[in-house]
Design brief:
The protein is mostly helical. The chain is built from 10 helices and no strands. The protein is 72% helix and 0% strand.
């Protein structure tokens, strides 16, 4: 009789464990479904600040405290990083708009919109303040001047801009006279304007 009770107790315990595992597996299965009315992938409005506005409410203020602590511990570097990322995003969107507004510009400058777009985004990583017009001008100047002045490249001009110099100053640093730099800038500006209007 005692042996029978032990067997029943063991079977009962096994049954309870199996039922518990079944409930857990069922709950996980429901949580993993990508369907549930949600579209796959990130929403179209993904940006640097996505979620920041609601994170404070959802975490009862802990997110604000965390961001403040990160800012203090990094002596403001985390804030500066966010500002640079926002500026890159803003400038990148403006470049996309310029290319949409002037669909023939890239071809008229003997390049493609994709090359201009991807090159500009890469340049923004080094200099988030770089404007798309400056990047296009650097590209055109390098094409116009590079054959006679091999040290005048797009990257060399972009490095001068990143150091806070103007295009004219940079061209002079790369070996042009003041007048030659001014003439080169005028020619590039004229070519870019013409490319936009054709």
């Amino acid at each position: 009789m005692q042996t029978t009770l032990r067997l029943i107790a063991r079977f009962g315990l096994v049954f309870v464990l199996m039922a518990g595992l079944q409930v857990i597996a069922s709950a996980q299965g429901r949580g993993r479904g990508a369907g549930a009315g949600r579209p796959a992938g990130p929403p179209s409005n993904v940006g640097v600040d996505r979620g920041i506005s609601t994170s404070s409410d959802r975490s009862n203020g802990r997110a604000d405290t965390g961001r403040s602590t990160a800012s203090n511990r990094s002596n403001g570097r985390s804030d500066a990083g966010l500002d640079r990322a926002r500026l890159r995003e803003q400038n990148s969107r403006q470049a996309d708009k310029d290319l949409r507004d002037h669909p023939g510009m890239a071809a008229n400058l003997h390049t493609t919109a994709n090359d201009l777009r991807s090159g500009y985004r890469t340049a923004l990583l080094a200099n988030p303040n770089l404007k798309f017009g400056q990047y296009v001008a650097a590209t055109r100047l390098a094409a116009n001047l590079g054959a006679r002045n091999p040290n005048i490249t797009r990257n060399a001009i972009l490095a001068g801009l990143a150091a806070g110099k103007s295009i004219g100053q940079t061209l002079q640093d790369l070996g042009l006279s003041k007048q030659a730099a001014k003439d080169a800038e005028k020619r590039a500006d004229r070519e870019i304007k013409d490319a936009k209007h054709h």
